[in-house]
Write a structure and sequence with these properties.
- The structure holds 2 protein chains of 2 kinds.
- By secondary structure, chain A is α+β, with helices and mostly antiparallel strands.
- Chain A is about 40% helix and about 15% strand.
- Chain A has a domain of about 100 residues: Sandwich (Immunoglobulin-like), CATH 2.60.40.10.
- Chain A contains 17 helices and 16 strands.
- In chain A, the strands form 5 sheets. In chain A, strands 8, 9, 10, 12 and 14 form a 5-stranded antiparallel sheet that branches. A 4-stranded antiparallel sheet of chain A has the order 13-11-15-16, with no helix packed on it.
- In chain A, helix 1 packs across helix 4 and helix 4 packs across helix 8.
- The longest helix of chain A has 27 residues.
- Chain B is elongated.
- In chain B, helix 3 packs across helix 12 and helix 7 crosses helix 12.
- Chain B has 3 domains: about 30 residues, no CATH class; about 40 residues, no CATH class; about 180 residues, Cytochrome Bc1 Complex, Chain D, domain 2, CATH 1.10.760.10.
- Helix content of chain B is about 50%, strand content about 10%.
- The longest helix of chain B has 24 residues.
- Chain B is mainly alpha-helical.
- Classes of the chains: A alpha+beta, B mainly alpha.
Chain lengths: ~500, ~300
């Protein structure tokens, strides 16, 4: 009976104090624990000042400013909504500043996603999970929610005290209830802002509050409000730990040279272990005599951690590399008057050295350079392709019903449908010609010049007629479509005389 | 049962219902998980709501109609209202489609054929909407795309127009229909005469034939014995006012000469037509079967199929 109560758990609850345990803590550790599942205590992070906190805050402000203000940015356009970024789904066109993207440009989107993925790999190879800690929207919104929580409920001790109090306490009701209301408002505005990207924002906001918005708009708003509230207010670090796949495959991309947040175990633990800075243990020398390291076990690094881990247990799969523990430890080291960087960005190889060298970025590896080259090539191609997009789209289809027609004088006729879509931004005149055909073989009907309005398509039917002897010889030719601005496309076409 | 090791070890841990038979026979109490049970209740609740929102139970001669409603304006301009059902939704969709096409049709009716053919936007509409109307009404005979079927239905994509290829003539053909007829000559002429005539007809479109027979056929063609020239004309080019075939071009309507591999079978194909005659060249009149605007659309569409004349 007693044996079956020992379960194998995948999380470390008790730090194992051996210097050699650096590395992934995703390892099986025997923990005496009655249930596989146990309720995890809520993480109540303490706020901290420092370099990484300032960077995170800057990213947060920038990200929020872009996300919340972009739908409201006006943009001069002649015949389309004057909104800088707008995804016009019914019109099947997507306005991104001066660029209008059509569904047929989906390759740009796929290329952009490829670039984003490789950029993620590139950054991960250099700095570990830098995306998770600073740029991920889960991190940003959680950060914002925690900021609001602190604003209303106070610093960590006050929040912990409120958590312990019963709901009958008026203060708890006011402060925690108030926080949740504010969270709800932020969630709602986040959701509504998302919807605003899909229509003319000022009209949509009015439509929303007058009940005139499309059902899809209301459904999206409700779903996203709930999702934002749950993800940033309730689930928080559980999203990163149990739901998000990116963290996991980023872990798989780590090298021993990858820079990540590490605790310098040798420096911190000494030969005996960590010890609070009691009387007689306040200077480095005093501590060295007793064999203690420089970690004063203040646990500030644990208190500021948004995912509730102890970085001193080594690199962990739950760590999102946000650098707040680095800030926390630096504050303490400054107070003690010791060197900063007991917890710092460093690589495993460097930490394994007897005397760790100054931190530097290891970019001279095939992986990093390969990602970098791929990134540069893909970005260059995307920029080239976007800036060299034709002024019009075209497709040439041979009419196959019937494939060819025998005419009364014995010559053979093939017909083609040419679809021209004008995306140049203004009305345009096109001319259609052919190469590799005898004079007079191409017949445009009435459309030697085709006028197409901006954003519109026109189908033109042309026919090619060849006398019997030429029809036997010519099986391929080229269509040449020219815009009035001299932009020209050439497309292959086939000529059939038999099935 | 009692010596089953499994039941012995686990029976101590599992609650029983308290029922005992035969002294020691007990029943485990393993209730369904709560989330499962609540899931069932939720689906029940969903069903209840669904019954009232969508049409469901029959009640006497009527039924629960649901809360939804499908409203649309029908072709006669009257508003129709149905309880929610997929058929009404289809009708509504069809009506919306027709309404979307209406401005184009209105434009079409107000313009001359030539102007329509020169307008790029309307031409695109003719190509796409015309294809749909053609597929619904004409393709059964003329095939989708208008390629026709040799020996049965004329090819509309070539430049040979039996009754004329102007917009007006095409409109007339569609609205009033056509009835092609050629008498059989099996009884009036002997086999040799028919063979001579066939040789002459083949020679008209440049096929290799026996020159003697063709010369005899030439005489017969222009004589009052066979009297072919009455309909096909002195030069054999046919008359569009009565729809007689042009025998001098390379387009064949009834005799399958193009797919014949040798001279004998070419001759046989033509002889066949001369001796049996034709009474199957019938096209029904479409006046009253399709709307005037559809007829105008089809006229332009068919005109563009063959490049027009």
């Amino acid at each position: 009976m007693a044996e079956s109560n020992i379960r194998y758990a995948l999380f470390v609850e008790r730090p194992i104090k051996t210097p050699a345990c650096r590395g992934f803590s995703l390892r099986e550790t025997v923990v005496e624990n009655k249930e596989l599942y146990f309720k995890r205590p809520p993480v109540v992070p303490r706020s901290i000042q420092g370099t990484f906190r300032r960077f995170k805050t800057a990213v947060l402000w920038l990200g929020f400013a872009v996300y919340f203000l972009l739908p409201w940015m006006p943009w001069e356009r002649l015949d389309a909504p004057t909104q800088a970024v707008m995804f016009d789904i019914p019109g099947r066109r997507y306005f991104v500043f001066d660029l209008t993207v059509y569904p047929q440009d989906v390759f740009w989107l796929s290329l952009l996603l490829f670039i984003a993925a490789v950029f993620l790999f590139f950054m991960t190879a250099l700095f570990g999970r830098a995306f998770c800690g600073y740029f991920c929207f889960q991190t940003l919104w959680t950060d914002a929610f925690v900021f609001l929580e602190r604003l209303i409920q106070g610093e960590r001790p006050a929040r912990l005290r409120l958590l312990r109090e019963p709901w009958s306490s008026k203060e708890k009701l006011l402060r925690i209830g108030g926080t949740r209301v504010v969270w709800g408002v932020l969630s709602f505005w986040t959701a509504l802002t998302f919807v605003l990207y899909f229509g003319y924002a000022p009209d949509l906001v009015v439509a929303f509050f007058t009940g005139k918005m499309a059902a899809a708009g209301y459904i999206t708003t409700v779903v996203l409000t709930v999702a934002t509230y749950l993800a940033a207010g309730v689930l928080r670090e559980h999203v990163c730990t149990f739901i998000c796949p990116y963290g996991r495959f980023q872990s798989a991309m780590y090298d021993p040279e990858t820079l990540t947040v590490h605790y310098d175990r040798k420096r911190g633990e000494g030969s005996v272990g960590r010890q609070p800075a009691r009387a007689g243990l306040r200077t480095k020398e005093e501590r060295q005599i007793h064999g203690y390291g420089e970690c004063v076990d203040c646990e500030l690094c644990v208190q500021v951690c948004p995912v509730g881990i102890d970085i001193r247990n080594g690199l962990q799969y739950t760590c999102i590399s946000c650098g707040l523990c680095v800030d926390a430890c630096n504050v303490i080291m400054d107070k003690m008057g010791w060197d900063r960087g007991l917890v710092r960005y460093d690589s495993e190889v460097n930490l394994d050295k007897l005397v760790p060298a100054p931190v530097k970025i290891h970019w001279k590896s095939l992986k990093v350079i390969g990602y970098g080259v791929a990134l540069v090539l893909m970005i260059a191609y995307l920029v080239f392709d976007v800036s060299n997009r034709p002024e019009f789209e075209h497709s040439i289809q041979q009419i196959r019903q019937p494939l060819f027609v025998m005419l009364s004088d014995g010559s053979v006729r093939n017909r083609y449908q040419i679809r021209l879509t004008n995306i140049s931004g203004k009305e345009e005149r096109f001319t259609i010609g052919a190469r590799g055909l005898p004079v007079g073989a191409l017949d445009f009907g009435n459309f030697e010049n085709v006028y197409v309005k901006n954003g519109k398509s026109v189908i033109v039917q042309v026919s090619v007629k060849l006398d019997p002897s030429r029809a036997q010889r010519i099986s391929e030719f080229e269509f040449v479509i020219k815009s009035a601005h001299g932009h020209e496309v050439v497309d292959q076409a086939r000529f059939f005389t038999r099935h | 049962m009692a010596d089953n090791a499994h039941s012995q070890t686990s029976s101590a841990n599992v609650q029983t219902t308290g029922h005992v038979w035969d002294g020691d026979l007990q029943e485990y109490n393993n209730p369904l998980p709560l989330w499962w049970i609540y899931g069932l209740y939720v689906t029940m609740l969903f069903a209840l709501v669904y019954w009232f929102v969508y049409p469901s139970w029959p009640i006497g001669k009527s039924f629960l109609p649901g809360t939804g409603e499908v409203v649309y304006v029908n072709a006669q301009g009257q508003e129709e209202s149905w309880h929610w059902n997929t058929r009404a939704k289809l009708l509504k969709e069809m009506q919306e489609g027709a309404a979307a096409q209406k401005p184009y049709y209105d434009k079409l009716m107000g313009m001359s054929y030539e102007a329509i053919a020169k307008d790029p936007e309307l031409s695109s509409f003719v190509l796409s909407a015309g294809k749909a109307v053609f597929s619904e009404n004409c393709a059964a005979c003329h095939q989708s795309g208008g390629g026709g079927k040799l020996g049965f239905f004329p090819n509309l994509t070539d430049d040979d127009w039996m009754y004329g290829g102007s917009f007006e003539k095409i409109h007339q053909t569609i609205s009033q229909g056509r009835r092609g007829y050629m008498p059989g000559f099996a009884e009036a002429l002997d086999k040799e005469q028919i063979e001579s005539l066939a040789s002459y007809v083949l020679s008209l479109s440049g096929n290799k034939v026996d020159a003697n027979k063709a010369a005899k056929g030439d005489q017969l063609f222009h004589s009052h014995t066979a009297a072919c020239f009455y309909c096909h004309g002195d030069d054999g080019k046919g008359r569009q006012d009565i729809g007689s075939a042009n025998l001098t071009d390379k387009v064949w309507l009834w005799a399958d000469v193009p797919s014949a591999t040798d001279d004998v079978s070419k001759l046989a194909a033509v002889k066949n037509v001369i001796s049996a005659g034709l009474a199957k060249g019938v096209m029904p009149a479409w006046d009253g079967r399709i709307k005037p605007e559809q007829m105008k659309l089809l006229t332009v569409y068919v005109h563009e199929l063959g490049g027009g004349k």
